[in-house]
Amino acid sequence: MNMMPEHSVPLIELDLLRTFVAIVETGSFAAAADTVFRTPSAISMQMKKLEELLGKPVLVRDSRSVSLTPEGELLLEHGRRMLALNREIASKFIVPDVTGIVRLGAPDDVAERFLPDMLRRFSDSHPAITVDVVVQNSIHLVELVKQKKMDIAMITCESGIEGTDCAEILYREQLVWAVVRGGIAGETDPLPISVWEEGCAWRKAGLEGLKKAERPYRVSFQSAYISGQRAAVLADLAVAPLPVSAITDPIIEAPEKFGLPKMPDYGLGMIVASDSGPAVLAAADHLRASFAQRHSQMRAA
What we know:
The protein is an alpha/beta fold. It has three domains: 6-89, Arc Repressor Mutant, subunit A; 100-164 and 275-300, Periplasmic binding protein-like II (D-Maltodextrin-Binding Protein, domain 2); 173-266, Periplasmic binding protein-like II (D-Maltodextrin-Binding Protein, domain 2). The protein has ten helices and eleven strands. It has helices at residues 14-26, 29-36, 40-54, 70-93, 108-113, 115-125, 138-146, 201-212, 226-234, 278-300; strands at residues 59-61, 66-68, 100-106, 129-135, 152-156, 168-180, 191-195, 217-222, 240-243, 251-253, 265-272. Strands 3, 4, 5, 6, 9, 10 and 11 form a seven-stranded mixed sheet that branches. Strands 1-2 form a two-stranded antiparallel ribbon. A two-stranded parallel sheet has the order 7-8. Strand 1 and strand 2 form a beta hairpin. Helix 1 packs across helix 2. It is globular. It starts with 13 loop residues before the first helix and ends with a helix.
């Protein structure tokens, strides 16, 4: 495979990304100009330079609005990560005097697999900010943010839950069918599966795949917690759709001989309450940077 020499890869200026994100978030070049303290003509020049660097259009403009091309959607996701990483690096040297309490909600699998290390590092860099964590499912977390009872909610996206479509995607991960090593649940007809109730992105992906493959199934085990789903798999009572990072021996990805349909990935998103203060914004930036770092590590592995 031909690899582009490192010296020939264009360096994208953070200032260009900051302007691009501002355009998307404000919905227009004029509004973005006020946000980044530039003239509209300067904004246009920056976007022209950005698109020339990438060799692809990232924005579609008409007389009323600005929309993203598919390449623009990808740039937005990675651009936000790069800006968050920049803020994270700067905070290591220039620590603002920020204090306060942040109310953070997350599903149990996120709280178990991701948050401990991320919150420990946030405590090191922002010792004057206290983070209170509530473990709850995505449906309830969306409502808590709406009711101003939660500052930040980490939620699973692409589940069809009302309100999750506005979440900022921080991380994408492949879903797979989980079985216990040497188990026979995957051979059973109808297939016994372990999922949660309507509104779970993993359930939605799994059931849609089975229906499309015309594979008979029955819901034999229901749990709102990943520990419960893992218990069902370990007991060989069911197979379950789980993120690939949750697959640890003796739980394995279902072998091809079981004929289970390939699963899509899913998005882990973040919703930040409107009018949030400095402490909440600092925590949100830290989460963005942490998941960006994890994404980079996964790609390098």
